[in-house]
Design a protein that fits this description.
The chain is mainly alpha-helical. The protein is built from 3 helices and 2 strands; from the N terminus they run αββαα.
Length: 112
């Protein structure tokens, strides 16, 4: 089995007096982050790890996929729930429309 090697970027920055660190542009670009975007930080054994919010979500989703594999053609449970809620909302709208039509017909009969 082969070994997967991810590209590694190195950078150097200084801590400012107010505690700010500038992330070099090459690293920001590789992370897919831009000014104002939230980042998540984790300190473990004296090592600071900085991760984009999107990256964290993607990593967590991949971890869940290991425990709940999705077969081709299957939907995620969250997608199933969303589809069920949309169908429920569609049925409610149809029922509301039907009730409006019935109400109008009753009123027309009473007036006419």
């Amino acid at each position: 089995m082969g070994t997967v090697v991810e590209s590694v970027l190195h950078g150097k920055s200084r801590l400012s007096e107010n505690g700010r660190i500038v992330i070099p542009s090459q690293i920001r670009e590789a992370m897919g982050i831009s000014a104002g975007e939230p980042v998540l930080m984790e300190l473990e054994d004296g090592v600071l790890r900085i991760e984009s919010h999107r990256s964290r979500i993607r990593r967590i989703q991949e971890e869940f996929r290991k425990h709940v594999p999705i077969r081709p053609g299957e939907m995620l449970m969250s997608d199933q729930l969303i589809a069920e809620r949309r169908e429920e909302a569609r049925r409610e709208m149809e029922e509301t429309d039907r009730q409006i039509v019935e109400y109008r017909l009753r009123n027309e009969r009473q007036l006419g």
